[in-house]
C-alpha cells in the first residue's frame, strides 16, 4: 500500500494552477489559500494539513528526481536539506552567473558543495558560512512547526531564522546525493523586484545586530551619508558621488567575480540589482 501523499498549497494563484492540479486527482491533493500569503504561511498550512509526520517540502520552482521519496526514506537523519548548487545550472544566464559569483563569495569554501563532498553537517559553529535554502527540505512536522518566526505575513519569509533555531537543537544535514533543478527567472523585468524582496528576507536575519553583515551594513550607510554631506557642504564636488558609485560597482564586480567572463557578467547585472 502507498504510504505517502502529495499536497499542493495554491497560494491564491491567478493562472491555470488549480486546473493543472485537478488533472492529477486523486493522487494529488490541493488546498487553495483565500489570498496570496507568501511561502512561510503556505508551508505552515501544508505542514498542518499533511496526513503524515515525515514531511518533504518542495519549492514550486524546483524539479527533483523521481526517486526523491526513496532517497529521503533511505537517509537516517532529519532535518535533511537537498543541495542544488550545481554550477552548470547557474551558467545558463547572466543573472545566474551573478548569483553563482555572489554565492561563491558569501559561502566559500562551502559553495558549490558538489566540489568537495556529498554531505555537510550544518551546525551553530559553521552556520553563517554555509549556503541554506528550503528548495527541497525533509523534516519532522512538529520539529518544523515549533521553530517558526514570531511574525507571519506575506512579506515574512525568514528561512534563515528558522534554520538558526533548528541548529540550536540539532544539526541540519545538507545532502547533495540527489540532483535538484531550480527553474531560475529569465525575464529581466522581474529580476530587480525579486532581488528586492529576496534582499529584504536576507536582511531580516544577517543584518541584525550581532549577525554576520551588521557592521558592514552600517559602514556602507555611513560612507554614503558622509559623502552626500560633504557634497552638500561644498567640501567635495558633486561629481565625486557618481564617480564613487562607478568605482564601487567596478570594485564590487572584481571582488565577486572569478575570471573575466564572470566579471563582465557581474558588472552588467549588479547595477540594476543594486
Can you put this structure into words, describing what you see?
- This protein is an alpha/beta fold and 274 residues long.
- The protein folds into two domains: 6-187, Spore Coat Polysaccharide Biosynthesis Protein SpsA, Chain A; 213-274.
- The protein is built from eleven helices and nine strands.
- It has helices at residues 17-22, 39-49, 68-74, 87-90, 94-107, 141-145, 159-169, 191-206, 214-232, 240-256, 260-273, and strands at 6-10, 28-32, 54-58, 62-64, 80-82, 119-122, 136-140, 172-175, 180-182.
- The protein has a five-stranded mixed sheet. Strands 1-2 form a two-stranded parallel sheet. It has a two-stranded antiparallel ribbon with strand order 4-9.
- Helix 1 links the parallel strand 1 (6-10) and strand 2.
- The model has no long low-confidence stretch (mean pLDDT 83).
As for the CATH topology of the largest domain, it is Spore Coat Polysaccharide Biosynthesis Protein SpsA, Chain A
| Largest sheet properties | 5 strands, mixed
Radius of gyration: 21 Å
SSE topology string: EHEHEEHEHHEEHHEEHHHH
Task: List the main descriptive attributes of the protein structure presented here.
single chain; 274 residues; alpha/beta; Spore Coat Polysaccharide Biosynthesis Protein SpsA, Chain A; 2 domains; five-stranded mixed beta sheet; 11 helices; globular
Amino acid at each position: 500500500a502507498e504510504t505517502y501523499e502529495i499536497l499542493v498549497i495554491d497560494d491564491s494563484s491567478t493562472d491555470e494552477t488549480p486546473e493543472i492540479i485537478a488533472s492529477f486527482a486523486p493522487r494529488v491533493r490541493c488546498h487553495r489559500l483565500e489570498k496570496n500569503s507568501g511561502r512561510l504561511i503556505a508551508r505552515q498550512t501544508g505542514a498542518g494539513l499533511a496526513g503524515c509526520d515525515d514531511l518533504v517540502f518542495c519549492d514550486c520552482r524546483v524539479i527533483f528526481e523521481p526517486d526523491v521519496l526513496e532517497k529521503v526514506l533511505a537517509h537516517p537523519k532529519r532535518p535533511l536539506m537537498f543541495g542544488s548548487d550545481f554550477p552548470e545550472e547557474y551558467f545558463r544566464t547572466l543573472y545566474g552567473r551573478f548569483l553563482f559569483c555572489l554565492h561563491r563569495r558569501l559561502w566559500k569554501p562551502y559553495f558549490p558543495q558538489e566540489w568537495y563532498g556529498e554531505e555537510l553537517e550544518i551546525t551553530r559553529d559553521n552556520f553563517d558560512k554555509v549556503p541554506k535554502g528550503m528548495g527541497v527540505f525533509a523534516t519532522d512536522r512538529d520539529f518544523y512547526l515549533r521553530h517558526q518566526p514570531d511574525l507571519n505575513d506575506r512579506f515574512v519569509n525568514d528561512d534563515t531564522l528558522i534554520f538558526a533555531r533548528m541548529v540550536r537543537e540539532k544539526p541540519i544535514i545538507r545532502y547533495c546525493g540527489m540532483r535538484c533543478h531550480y527553474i531560475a527567472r529569465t525575464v529581466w523585468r522581474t529580476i530587480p523586484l525579486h532581488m528586492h524582496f529576496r534582499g529584504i528576507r536576507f536582511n531580516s536575519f544577517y543584518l541584525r545586530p550581532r549577525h554576520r553583515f551588521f557592521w558592514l551594513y552600517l559602514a556602507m550607510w555611513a560612507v554614503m551619508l558622509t559623502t552626500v554631506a560633504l557634497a552638500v557642504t561644498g567640501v567635495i564636488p558633486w561629481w565625486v558621488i557618481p564617480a564613487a558609485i562607478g568605482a564601487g560597482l567596478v570594485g564590487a564586480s572584481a571582488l565577486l567575480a572569478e575570471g573575466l567572463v564572470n566579471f563582465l557578467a557581474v558588472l552588467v547585472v549588479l547595477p540594476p540589482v543594486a
